[in-house]
Design brief:
There is one protein chain. By secondary structure, the protein is an alpha/beta fold. It folds into two domains: 122 residues, 3-Layer(aba) Sandwich (Rossmann fold), CATH 3.40.50; 227 residues, Hypothetical protein af1432 (Orthogonal Bundle). Helices cover 59% and strands 7% of the residues. It has a five-stranded parallel beta sheet, with helices on both faces. Helix 19 packs across helix 21. The longest helix has 22 residues.
Length: 395
């Protein structure tokens, strides 16, 4: 039974939620609180799997409440309900909320969101590990620009120029987008000169993926590894995954965008591993010098891809993206899904230094390399198949 706490200072809102979720009473144990103080009293008395809170409340608001929830119950999933007009409040909560839902909230969307969170929690059955992940203060977050972009996309009212304007307010992000798209690794046949052109040429979904990657990898904490190196490697894996998926499959634009996003965020779990309180620096460096994800599990009890999978589930990304990233925790397996296989191939090629700029510029060379690596991975013995799982270290 999933235990959920709804917090809102308007009794009529809570009553509406109570009525709308009555059909879930056999799956959800739902409690209600009218302010943060009442919510914290309830959290002191029992554990909840999910807390859903309104942003605007007198006294302690939603962002402040979720900070308290993180401190006392780090494994609890944290959802904010916001009108998206509260930019400052939303920005404050980006570091503590796993999800943002707009008000008024569609009940079916709420049910889907909570179901996806439940799936993510079940994928990491260890409560201790979930507590460790949830307690990290610098937990990677999908920042304010990402939240505004997604809100505008989901409204269905913003055109490409308006979406590009949101992104262009962040000069560093704009430069990152143009650098990425014009690199040889992305393999475009024409130069992209502006964010607006990028949206028109590549579509909103690819833009969203790049913004997501920029959000999580440009938060500076106390990490003991080179975050820039992780980010660059993820960008290369993302671009190559997209190209490989197009070579091996009759892929649609949304599918190409999804495999690109999987590549951008597949290693975000590494940022969490290196900021877990009490982790010895020597252990971190030892794990990341190795090429095997099994070392992650020996040192930390979980590998970086499992954490990435958990975070992507909490952030409610599509199941096919979550499955593709999760497949990196296991031996290379073409049968998982076409997207997972494209990501596996790209990861293997990039971390083993097999994608030079000369090869990246030649589509025929890329295809030949992909076919060769496919043969190598399929023919590997199980003991050797995990050699690439953790990459070439986080140098």
């Amino acid at each position: 039974m999933l235990k959920i706490l709804f917090v809102d200072d308007e009794p009529n809102v809570l009553q509406a939620v109570r009525r709308a979720t009555r059909d879930m009473r056999h799956e959800w144990d739902i409690r209600f609180a009218e302010d943060a103080d009442q919510a914290m009293t309830m959290l002191d008395e029992e554990a909840f799997d999910v807390v859903v809170t309104d942003m605007r409340m007198p006294g302690t608001d939603g962002a402040e409440l979720l900070m308290l929830v993180r401190a006392c119950s780090p494994s609890t999933a944290r959802i904010v309900l916001s009108g998206y007009a509260e930019d400052e409040a939303v920005f404050r909560s980006t570091r503590v909320a796993h999800q943002f839902l707009s008000k008024p909230c569609d009940v079916e969307l709420l049910k889907r969101t909570i179901a996806e969170i439940r799936d993510a929690q079940q994928a990491v059955p260890s409560g201790k590990i979930r507590d460790l992940i949830g307690s990290v203060e610098q937990l990677p977050a999908l920042g304010e620009v990402y939240q505004r972009l997604v809100s505008a996309i989901e409204s269905g009212q913003a055109n490409n120029d308006e979406l590009a304007e949101i992104v262009s307010e962040d000069v560093a992000l704009t430069a990152e987008i143009l650098r990425l798209l014009n690199s040889s690794f992305f393999g475009l046949s024409r130069r992209v000169e502006s964010v607006a052109q990028a949206v028109g040429f590549l579509g909103v979904d690819v833009l969203r993926a790049i913004v997501a990657g920029h959000s999580v990898f440009n938060q500076r904490g106390s990490s003991t590894v080179d975050v820039d190196a992780i980010s660059r490697r993820s960008q290369q894996v993302a671009a190559l995954s997209r190209r490989i998926h197009g070579i091996l499959n009759d892929a649609t634009s949304p599918e190409l965008a999804n495999v690109y996003l999987a590549g951008m965020l597949h290693e975000v779990g590494a940022l969490v591993l290196t900021t877990i309180d009490g982790t010895a620096r020597l252990d971190v460096e030892g794990a990341f010098r190795s090429n095997e994800a099994t070392v992650d599990r020996l040192v930390f009890g979980i590998d970086r891809y499992a954490i990435s999978t958990y975070l992507l589930g909490l952030w409610a990304f599509p199941p096919e993206i979550i499955q593709a990233v999760g497949s990196l925790s296991r031996q290379p397996d073409r049968s998982v899904s076409p997207m997972a296989w494209s990501l596996t191939l790209a990861r293997h090629i990039v971390v083993n230094g097999r994608l030079t700029e000369e090869v990246a510029d030649d589509e025929a060379e890329i295809e030949a390399l992909v076919r060769l690596v496919e043969t190598e991975l399929i023919g590997e013995a199980p003991a050797a198949a995990v050699v690439d799982a953790a990459g070439a270290g986080l140098r």
